[in-house]
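Workshop exercise sheet. Pairs work together: one partner reads the sequence aloud, the other fills in the structure field after running the prediction. Swap roles for the next sheet.
Pair: D.N. / O.F.
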Amino acid sequence: MTADDLYQLLKKAQEPKGYFFNGDKGWVLPILHDMLVNKARYGYTSCPCRLASGDREKDRDIICPCVYREADVGEYGSCYCNLYVSQDWNENKILRRYVPERRPPDKTFF
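Structure field:
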């Protein structure tokens, strides 16, 4: 599977739920590529914007789409890595602000 294949698959699955890809495809495709790298490395598509432990159970919260996406998009119009955004975010109808990390410090592995 390529990043383009994953893009098409996830777009069809996520847009009906109200989650859109960032309109900058040049931003999106490298993130999707890195998700596929993590899939090959760990066996699951952990968020490439966060450090995964390699333990699926410990990383369950950051398997994309992560458990923080809904709150991030609801509050900021974008998830932490700007992969998933709201339609208003894509259409510049809301201010694009920094999305802080919601993952608790005790779940980071460095």
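Discussion prompt: The chain has a mean pLDDT of 95. What would you look at next?
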